[in-house]
Amino acid sequence: MGGAMPEPGETHLMHRSLVFQPHKVASASGFELTLDNGRKVIDACGGAAVACLGHGNEEVATAVYEQIKQVGYVHTQAYTTQVAEELADLILDGSPFGLEKAVFLGSGSEAVEAALKLARQYFYEKGEHERLHIVARQQAYHGNTMASMSVSSNLARKLPYQGFCYPHTSTVSPAYTYRYQRPSETEAQFTDRLVAELDAEFNRIGPHRVIAFIAEPVVGATAGCVPPPVGYLRGVKALCERYGILLILDEIMCGSGRCGTFFAFEPEGVEPDIVTIAKALGGGFAPIAGVVMHRKVVDVLRQGSKAFVHGHTFQAHAISCAAALAVQKIVRRDGLVERSAAMGEILGTLLRQELAQCRSVGDIRGRGLFWAVEFVKDKATKEPFDASILYGPKVQEEAFERGVAVYPGHGTIDGTAGDHVLIAPPFTVDESTLKKVCELLRDAILAQEAVFLA
Predict the structure, then answer these.
(1) Sign of CA dihedral 376, 252, 265, 238
(2) Where does the record locate the signal sequence feature (predicted)?
(3) In whole angstroms, what is the distance from residue 374 CA to residue 64 CA?
């Protein structure tokens, strides 16, 4: 057997980049990662806002081990497991906000894909077969599968697949106050303009052709922890109700307690039709995501085919459900959603204090333990750095060298221009660790300012 071997120092594992070799983590415990060279790094972003309990939790490890001994895998076409049933019952106890059923899958992208299919099936069952269109927002991210990528705005990830995506999609402006609210507008006027734009888009397509509007309640990595202006989601929901369009809220990154309430949409006063959850659901101890659906959606399936025409081999996997069930029991027992809200207030205050003198910090925003710092070349004009500089990734790299991991963002404004970093520590984080994170981030920013704002 012939064939080329990997380059010297490489293995056969395909990393995300063929140029950059990722750091090898030897172990992880609490808030810290230990690299194979012995260096310790504070994980201030939970990987990608995932590790809500930190690393190495013994209770979760025990729960997973006990589940493996009982049953590791069964096919959900014929079987279920106690842990899968318990997880759904725990999350949807009392059918909060009318949410009645849950489907558990392996990733956030899978969950969004399933949510879009569920929305289409809802209308198929109702006989509204002409509904094929999905409206999303610019500067949003919903996943890496073909349909979920089709409603996303991450240009770098979509570039090779132009003409290869789901065609019946369109986008409206982001609900992104720092960049898109006009100087002459009040917040209420900005909200009204965004809702009017969505109304116009529904009517351009024909409301009877639209399946759903999909949005992140608090935008995640693509634009950097952007909460909506007051009244925005209520206005969107009212529009969807008027035209019989479904509202899908993507809480893959911002949900499951990350923003200080279990569902990130809770402060907005709306009842979505479908919600996607992941990341903090299982805390990274096993791959798991979920789609939760309103009784309105379930009732249409009950009256029609009596099935969700969708399935995966590893759907509701017992090991993943056991891990997530253990995580969610700890979250509830220890009041960690409330802690996320309280520690988030502290994190916001510390960021504003420590970064006050940083000339490149344009905006600090977030909710719960989900915060971002957006960078600018000029605070007065909000002019971003030249895209070729990769200022956000450079700050992230500098922070890593100083001992703290934050999540970088580039193309913040429109997919090309703009930079930010994201901070999303475990819900168990303490104030002294948050202060150290903010100090190290400050030092990293000042170091880059000395180069690019000299």
Answers:
(1) positive
(2) none
(3) 39
Residues 118 and 300: their CA atoms lie apart, in Å, by: 11
How do beta strands 246-251 and 274-277 pair?
A: parallel
Whole-structure pTM value: 0.96
- Hey, what are 71's tokens? 């049953």
Cα separation of 338 and 113, whole Å? 31
DSSP β-ladder status, 246-251 and 210-215: parallel
Which amino acid is located at 362 in the chain?
A: G
- What is the maximum span of the chain, computed from C-alpha positions, in angstroms? 69
CA atoms within 13 A on the CB side of 85: 4
Look up residue 432 and give its amino acid. S
- β-strands 133-137, 169-172: how paired? parallel
Q: pLDDT per residue over 362-407, tens digit each?
A: 999 999 999 999 999 999 999 999 999 999 999 999 999 999 999 9
CA 93 to chain centre: 23
Rounded Cα gap, residues 121 and 450, in angstroms: 55
Return the H-helix or E-strand segment holding 238. helix 232-243
User: pLDDT tens digit string along 102-130?
Assistant: 999 999 999 999 999 999 999 999 999 99
